[in-house]
Amino acid sequence: MDTGSHLLFGATLSGIALFHPAVAQDPALSSAVVAASLIGSHAPDFDSAMRLFGREKYLKHHRGVSHSIPAWFLWSGAIGALTAWAAGEMTHMALLISIAFAAVVIHVLFDYTNGYGVQWLRPFSGRWLHLDTLTLTDPWLFCLHASAAIAAIYGEPLVVSWTCLSSWAATVIYVAWRIAHHRLVVRRVRRRFRRWRSSYVLPGLWWFRWQYVVQTDKGFETGTIEGRRWLPSATVPVCEEHACVEASRRADAVRTLRGFAKKEYVSWAALSDGGYVVTWTDMRFWRPGEWPYRARVTLDERMNIVREELGWHKKTWEAPFV
Fold first, then answer.
1. DSSP per residue over 258-319, as a string?
2. How far apart are CA 252 and CA 108, in angstroms?
3. Do 61 and 168 share a domain, yes or no?
4. What's the whole-model pTM score?
5. CA 196 from centroid of its chain's CA atoms
6. Are both 28 and 175 inside the same structural domain?
7. Which residues contact 71 (CB under 8 A, 6 or more apart)?
8. What is the pLDDT of residues 111-145, one digit of tens each?
9. In the chain, what is the straight-line distance between the N-terminal and C-terminal CA atoms, in Å?
10. Residues of the domain holding 132
11. Same domain membership, residue 249 and residue 121
12. Beta bridge pairs of residue 297
């Protein structure tokens, strides 16, 4: 999820802690709970510091080690202990560690619902895991938790705690519905394309809108589902093999993308100077006319790598919303 949503989830999570008598009666402890929850709700994304070492390093490691199971305990232990020390609430350190742990785990679980995925099973598995059920920013969840957070500013502790608990109960029901809905859409897609070899369905920004990509014997089929309407977008044939494709595999950008991609696709074109440009992408992330997440490698006529780049080529508000 996006940073704003994660922080809102942390704010409403801290409101539930007001059910604890000590938190409700002690303003200092209450403030420490809010701090631990907010920091914990964002902590896994501290790996954004990898941007300092280049875009490829960031894309390779984002949602990796910092979101893994061992990191849950490291983040929550450090955040809880430091918050307790800073607030002078060492007697409640276990409570603050628990709040931070819940915030960290919730962060990772929401990232898991997104199409981009997360390596939360590391070190046991390096697979990118994703449920493909929620967009990077879910408008309904954002408004729900924003409303609860605003109401918490002016409410009494008991009202705040019940408001926040209600928002989380609604969240659990909503996410469960989205997961179930996604599975139904996947079944629809597979029934339509009887000879599918692989299929992926990603959510649109609004309810009942989904993007699909299906691999068949002849290539890939992409399109959108809006309620009961099928809106095919493009048929993408398998690209011809060429020596430039094999040469491009040496590029760091390509290795990074291939280590992440679930359904890689490569295309190439000859340049007027005798060189080649090879483009690798993950077929799951498409929008009409292009694949915005891609690695592009330029080679000379001797198959030497001249230039390479990796990244997203789209605005935040443009599909796909991952």
1. HHH-SSEEEEEEE-TTS-EEEEEEETTS-BTTB-SEEEEEEE-TT--EEEEEEEE-S-TTSS
2. 27
3. yes
4. 0.93
5. 26
6. yes
7. 44, 65, 104
8. 999 999 999 999 999 899 999 999 999 999 999 99
9. 8
10. 3-181
11. no
12. 278, 308
